[in-house]
Amino acid sequence: MEKENKSSCCAPSKTPSEKKDRDIITEKKVSAISTDNMIKLPGGKFLMGTSDEEGFPADGEGPVREITLNSFYIDITTVTNLQFFEFIKATKYITDAERYGWSFVFYGLLSKEDQKAGYEVAATTPWWCAVPGAQWDHPEGGKTNIDERMDHPVVHVSWNDAQAYCQWIGKRLPTEAEWEYAARGGLVQKKFPWGDELTPNGEHRCNIWQGNFPGYNSLEDGFLGTAPAKSFKPNDFELYNMSGNVWEWCNDWFSSDFHKTGPRKNPPGPQQGEAKVMRGGSFLCHYSYCNRYRVAARSSNTMDSSTSNLGFRCALSI
Predict the structure, then answer these.
(1) Does residue 225 sit within a domain?
(2) Cα(196)–Cα(294) distance, rounded to whole angstroms?
């Protein structure tokens, strides 16, 4: 039986009418491009997509197709709060969330006082609250900070913000094909970066939701919100958290059908669109609702949207 195609619980969007002017980083600000904390992945062919009955066909997860990629580098982790702090310190960049004055925060991360504050919520996903002052360094609003989370993924970053960071450091966002190739870790048509079993031998391998979403999380994997960027075992390419923890921006415009007839060598995605691809799922994903922590799963969001479970990692052409 085909699974109901529920929209992602993880992708509330800002509306176009809210668009604000933003900074544009037009030139590299670092003296040299470093490949420290990156892995060089050899070019080659792999099977992208899935026909998994657990998937969401309407998202464009299939068909399975053979893709050829050139060699490239990719970060072993998502960009951390510490790394993003260095970018902000060097450039004085102002993120989209700061320009809007608010960002989406999962209500379960808020204090009891803030849960009663009556923040505006997303229409179809009421567990998302539009919290004033929520931004990359105040992830649950103005009274919170990242002092104890410098090794966690930076969140509340829009696609625009991620692109600005990449421009500054001399790198780029991975294409969707590169991201999936990297996430699979050399395995062929497996559900997860480590295989087909979610918890092999009872071991948690990613930070996702346990319990009944969105009301109860048993925290069996040890985390309610983000986990440090190097949590859990890496995949066979030595990449961390390619499933769960935070959604990751890709360079491509999102389309549910472009790839069915699009290029099979270094596919760049559509030339235009309304939203950008997100991959990997997050700490909010659960099988019963947003089963998108599988390596072939896809989602999207508008370029200036930001949430408390959305980050990115960088890539570099060779």
Answers:
(1) yes
(2) 9
